[in-house]
């Protein structure tokens, strides 16, 4: 009795035209600024490009991780919202395209990619086996092909289930989700090392992959939370209750803490050991104006969201949850900027081309969402757990 | 048989859905003083019972802040004023090192204090009994059943009516729970003598048994991390070196920090001519010299350098330092005697640092002046 209206209410429904138009505007504006950036200062533009690539990887790949996690953990409450993650995961192949321009400027960005520097530098020379241009590109291509295949198979199963209502698709996705986990863990570590840690080829931190992962989950959850609430408020994802939003807010809160835990773990060991080859990375981020950015990052990504999301009411307050989602997305962008940009030069490089990356990211996300909403139902109406998921309460 | 009072009437249900429905119906029937007991948290119970937001979050927050603040204050006090230690060349107040401890204590104090608060609120500390304790009902709801309990102090409570009501909403095993008012209100408190006595006996027995079994019978030292260290002690052989000697001498030609070789070995006159006292006899130097003199010199030479210590006559009598000979010696000549020794006196070089030797000489000069004062000194 209650299943029919739910299914009908959450069938395909295209995104509002003005939002799609906004997506196109932001997307073209972002592309334009990025192209102009490459034209005026290709090195700076390549650094911005890396920030943008990592940001969209966080959202797309993070969404794919959340889907796999939901299947593996057998979570029921998240089933009604799963399609939003599936739509976001469609960013994965586009993200790979976004990284392509950087590949043409590798020697300008990565000091290890220069042929002659390696001869002078025995430390980089000893890492040659891993840090060389060919292997770098192979890793990048292989990882994105694997992730794209996972995306297509897992979301394909989910879409097929809308018609067949067959449990075997869920069973298959649970297996795929379990298989995805190690691939994801190794892959995201490789991406973090390749695209951000290797900017300083002398420096290393064994927790770096986990650090990037913690930010990834924050970004993916924040993006999903914002979109879910927006869709819910505009009549798309109906029948969601405050218990669902509370759970999303709790997960956000958890990963804000997780990020702080990991970030502090990395800092504490380096601070304690006090070895110059390790501390140099933090010293770079404590001089020439970066000190302010470091403190700001701590406030923006931990202290403010921690207290904003601490109380039970705040996680049920949709307005505040929406605000904090945007806040945390910006915090992750700042985090990536903080990770990547100090290598560009010693000061904090502020330039108008900076806005290209966020504009492009938001635009692309809107377009990918609109494209998916046209083709797929907004809820997995064939999933046998959907009814229980909608009736979920704390 | 003691007079017993009715506490509540309880009923058991089999599934979470049943208990949620039962709680809803109980609320709708107008009961206020009732409670639900389940073996695990049942989702949706808060809204079924129309409970307002629990204040446990607020309490936990306060407890956490208490733990965090007191930990930070305590560590700061220890590291800054009570026992300052330089660790790894870091400042005394090194906040990053405090974070893990503060974090752990925050979590611990939140959990422990919340538990204590629960005992205080539920059992009305120091009471340690509750009417539902040790009942068949409690045993069921803490393993596989879901229970509803309507209390006798509810304004709508009528024994027969409540029993009927519980039966109507599907409850099984409807049981009245009685309690002894003496036991709940002022009988069994945590400060009961018998209870505390048993606690003390248990503690003593456990300690004694542990001590005898580990230290006497089995001869195990449970915590010997500091006593047995994997290190080389003095005079032990070491397989690491080809000559097997554990105590290594320094590399040839090594000079210890602050050590100056003494160039006048066996040349007292040259020492007297060339060595100059580097210390100015300030109050601080003289105080230091006095303390060292009283420690190392006075046992033989006497407190006033007159050679009148209690060794006089029992031993080669120690000479006075007030003689014309010693008074006319240069500081360097006395320094030579302290450094090399003379007659029965051994070398004090290993015991007294060069600076202290010069300070002692300054103090000997003071004693000599005091014993041989000029007229002008008395003005």
State the helicity of chain B in percent bands. Answer: 40-55%
Estimate the helix proportion of chain A, in percent: over 70%
Largest sheet of chain A: none
Number of helices of chain B: 13
Would you mind describing this structure in some detail?
The complex is a heterodimer of chains A (394) and B (379). Chain A is mainly alpha-helical. Chain A has one domain. Chain A has 18 helices and no strands. The model of chain A is unreliable at 1-5 (pLDDT under 50). Chain B folds into three domains: 5-187, no CATH class; 192-248, no CATH class; 268-378, Cytochrome Bc1 Complex, Chain D, domain 2. In chain B, helix 3 (56-82) crosses helix 4. Chain B is α+β, with helices and mostly antiparallel strands and 379 residues long. Chain B has a four-stranded antiparallel sheet with strand order 2-3-1-4. Classes of the chains: A mainly alpha (394), B alpha+beta (379). Chains A and B meet through helix 12 of A and helix 4 of B.
Q: What features would you highlight for this structure?
A:
heterodimer, A: 394 residues, mainly alpha, B: 379 residues, alpha+beta, Cytochrome Bc1 Complex, Chain D, domain 2, 3 domains, four-stranded antiparallel beta sheet, 13 helices, 4 strands, 47% helix, elongated
Secondary structure elements and pairings:
The complex is a heterodimer of chains A (394) and B (379).
Chain A: H1 3-9, H2 17-40, H3 42-73, H4 82-89, H5 91-103, H6 106-109, H7 115-120, H8 122-126, H9 133-164, H10 167-195, H11 208-233, H12 242-273, H13 276-284, H14 290-308, H15 312-316, H16 318-340, H17 356-375, H18 386-390
Helix pairs in contact in A: 2-3, 2-17, 3-4, 3-5, 3-10, 3-11, 3-16, 3-17, 5-9, 9-10, 10-11, 11-12, 11-16, 12-14, 14-16
Chain B: E1 5-13, H1 16-28, E2 34-37, H2 45-48, H3 56-82, H4 95-123, H5 136-141, E3 146-151, H6 159-168, E4 172-179, H7 181-187, H8 193-217, H9 268-274, H10 283-301, H11 324-328, H12 331-340, H13 354-371
Antiparallel strand pairs in B: 1-3, 1-4, 2-3
């Amino acid at each position: 009795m209650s299943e029919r209206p739910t299914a009908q209410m959450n069938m395909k429904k295209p995104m509002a035209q003005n939002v799609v138009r906004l997506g196109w505007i932001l997307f073209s504006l972002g592309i334009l600024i990025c192209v102009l950036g490459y034209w005026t200062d290709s090195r700076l533009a390549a650094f911005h490009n890396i920030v943008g690539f990592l940001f969209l990887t966080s959202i797309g790949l993070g969404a794919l991780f959340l889907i796999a996690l939901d299947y593996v953990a057998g979570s029921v409450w998240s089933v009604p919202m799963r399609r939003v993650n599936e739509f976001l995961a469609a960013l994965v192949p586009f993200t790979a395209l976004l990284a392509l321009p950087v590949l043409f400027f590798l020697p300008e960005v990565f000091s290890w990619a220069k042929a002659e520097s390696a001869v002078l530098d025995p430390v980089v020379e000893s890492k040659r086996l891993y840090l060389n241009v060919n292997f770098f590109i192979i890793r990048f291509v292989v990882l994105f092909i694997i992730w794209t295949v996972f995306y297509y198979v897992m979301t394909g199963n989910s879409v097929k289930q809308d018609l067949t209502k067959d449990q075997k698709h869920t069973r298959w996705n649970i297996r795929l989700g379990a298989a995805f986990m190690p691939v994801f863990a190794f892959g995201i570590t490789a991406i973090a090392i390749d695209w951000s840690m290797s900017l300083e080829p002398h420096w290393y931190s064994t927790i770096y992959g986990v650090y990037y992962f913690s930010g990834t989950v924050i970004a993916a959850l924040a993006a999903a939370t914002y979109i879910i609430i927006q869709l819910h408020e505009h009549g798309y994802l109906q029948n969601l209750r405050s218990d669902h939003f509370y759970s999303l807010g709790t997960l956000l809160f958890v990963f804000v803490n997780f990020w702080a835990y990991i970030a502090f773990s990395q800092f504490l060991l380096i601070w304690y050991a006090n070895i110059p080859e390790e501390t140099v990375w933090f010293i770079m981020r404590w001089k020439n104006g970066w000190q302010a950015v470091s403190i700001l990052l701590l406030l923006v990504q931990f202290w403010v969201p921690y207290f904003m999301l601490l109380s039970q009411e705040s996680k049920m307050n949709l307005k505040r949850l929406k605000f904090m989602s945007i806040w945390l997305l910006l915090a992750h962008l700042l985090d990536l900027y903080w990770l990547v940009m100090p290598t560009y030069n010693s000061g904090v490089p502020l330039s108008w081309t900076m806005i290209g990356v966020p504009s492009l990211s938001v635009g692309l996300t809107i377009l990918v969402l609109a494209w998916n909403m046209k083709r797929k139902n907004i809820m997995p109406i064939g999933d046998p757990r959907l009814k229980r998921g909608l009736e979920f309460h704390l | 048989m003691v007079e017993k009072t009715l506490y509540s009437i309880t009923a058991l249900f089999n599934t979470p859905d049943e208990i949620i429905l039962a709680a809803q119906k109980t609320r709708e029937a107008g009961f206020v003083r009732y409670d639900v007991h389940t073996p695990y948290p049942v989702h949706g119970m808060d809204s079924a019972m129309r409970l307002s937001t629990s204040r446990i979050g607020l309490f936990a927050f306060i407890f956490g802040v208490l733990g965090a603040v007191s930990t930070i204050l305590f560590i700061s006090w220890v590291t800054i004023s009570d026992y300052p230690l330089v660790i790894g060349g870091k400042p005394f107040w090194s906040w990053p090192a405090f974070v893990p401890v503060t974090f752990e204590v925050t979590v611990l104090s939140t959990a422990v204090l919340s538990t204590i608060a629960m005992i205080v609120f539920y059992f009305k500390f120091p009471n340690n009994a509750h009417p539902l304790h040790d009942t068949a009902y409690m045993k069921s709801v803490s393993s596989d059943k879901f229970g509803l309990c309507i209390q006798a102090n509810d304004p709508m409570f009528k024994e027969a009516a409540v029993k009927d009501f519980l039966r109507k909403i599907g409850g099984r095993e409807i049981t009245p729970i009685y309690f002894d008012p003496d036991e709940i209100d002022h009988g069994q408190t945590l400060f009961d003598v018998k209870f505390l006595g048993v606690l003390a006996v248990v503690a003593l027995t456990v300690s004694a048994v542990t001590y005898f079994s580990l230290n006497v019978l089995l001869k195990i030292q449970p915590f010997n991390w500091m006593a047995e260290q994997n290190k080389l002690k003095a005079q032990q052989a070491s397989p690491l070196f080809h000559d097997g000697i554990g105590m290594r001498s320094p590399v040839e030609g090594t000079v210890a920090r602050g050590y100056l070789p003494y160039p006048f070995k066996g040349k007292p006159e040259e020492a007297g001519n060339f060595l100059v006292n580097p210390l100015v006899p300030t109050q601080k130097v003289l105080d230091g010299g006095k303390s060292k003199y009283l420690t190392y010199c006075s046992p033989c030479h006497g407190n006033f350098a007159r050679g009148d210590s209690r060794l006089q006559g029992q031993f080669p009598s120690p000479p006075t330092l007030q003689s014309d000979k010693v008074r006319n010696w240069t500081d360097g000549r006395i320094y030579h005697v302290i450094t090399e020794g003379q007659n029965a006196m051994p070398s004090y070089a290993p015991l007294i640092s060069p600076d202290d030797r010069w300070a002692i000489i300054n103090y000997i000069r003071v004693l000599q002046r005091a014993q041989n004062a000029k007229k002008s000194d008395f003005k």
